[in-house]
Structures are given as structure tokens and as C-alpha cells.
Amino acid sequence: MVFFEQPCAPLPCQSTWWSLSKNLTLLQVTGWVLIAVVIVVLLICTSVSRCLSPVSFLQLKFWKIYVEQEQEILKAQATEHATELARENIKCFFECSHPKEYNIPSIKDWQQISSLYTFNPKEQYYSTLHKYVNRKEKTQSIGSSEGDAVVPVLGFVDSPGIKSTTDL
């Protein structure tokens, strides 16, 4: 008995699946290459900004510790003063009395310590608050002065330390 062999034509779904698989592989490779490129670019940018920084590595470490401690102390002091003021106001409300005076910084003072930090190699201040306290003694404004510059590697100085009232 002789069987006639007919060539089997590929099924349409097989060729579609094969091209879809190739496209998916190509997309995955492209995605991983893009991720690798972004990581390398960020690493290079970070390295260059640190190399060009006017601040040494150890001074930068000290600076970060200072800012962290300043934010923690500010948070503790703000919590303490706010609690004290709230207690006094509630006491006065229920006793129908007048509150005693509290020394609270003015809106202008709060705005000045909340402004963007600028680095000046002539005057070494570790934060806007540090700059405000030292210039206030000299009765100077803490606005930008000659030589002030925003240095990218010092971006942590302006990072929000107090995120919300629930963190307090």
C-alpha cells in the first residue's frame, strides 16, 4: 500500500505565535537595556555632582547628621510648644480666662527659615535655620547674598523633615 504524502502546511496560529514570541523577547530586551541605561546615567550624574561638590565627603556626612539632628530637635520643640499652647488655650476656654503670652515666631520668621537653602563658601551655614539664627544676631536678612548658590549635592538640606502632623 502506498501512501501519498502531502506536505503539511504550517498552521496559521503557529506562525503568529512565533512572531509574537520574537516581538515579546525584543520588547523585554529593550526594556532591560533602557533600565540599565537609566541606572548608568544616574550613577554617572551622582558621581559627577559629588566630585564637583565644594564640600568634602566627611563634611557632607557631618552636614547630613547635623540636618537630621536639627529636624528631630525642631520636631520635638515644636511638639512641646504646640502642646503647651494648646493646653493653655483649652484651659482658658473652659475657665473663661485670658491666656498668658507665649513667644511664637512671626510669620516672617517662619517664612525665612522655610526658604530654599543656598550654599555660600564664604559663610558656612548648615541649614536655613542655622543661617537665620546667626544672621539675626547681626540683624541681617537671610535672603540671598553674593556668592550664594544652590548646590545639587546639598539637596538633602531642603528635604522635608516634618512630613505631616501624624509624624509628630
Can you offer a commentary on this structure?
The chain has 168 residues and is an all-alpha fold. It contains four helices and no strands. It starts with 11 loop residues before the first helix and ends in a 31-residue tail after the last helix. The C terminus is likely disordered.
Summarize the structure.
The chain has 168 residues and is mostly helical. 57% of the residues lie in helices and 0% in strands.
Q: How are the SSEs placed, and which strands pair?
A:
Elements: H1 12-51, H2 57-95, H3 107-113, H4 128-137
User: How would you classify the helix and strand content by structural class?
Assistant: mainly alpha
Q: What overall form do the CA principal axes indicate? A: elongated
Strand content: under 5%
- Specify the helix fraction band: 55-70%
Which parts are unreliable, with pLDDT below 50 for 5 consecutive residues or more? 162-168
Number of helices, where a helix is a run of at least 4 consecutive DSSP H or I residues: 4
First and last CA, distance: 92 Å
The SSE order reads HHHH
What value does the average pLDDT take? 77
Radius of gyration: 31 Å
Biggest sheet record:
none
Number of β-strand runs: 0
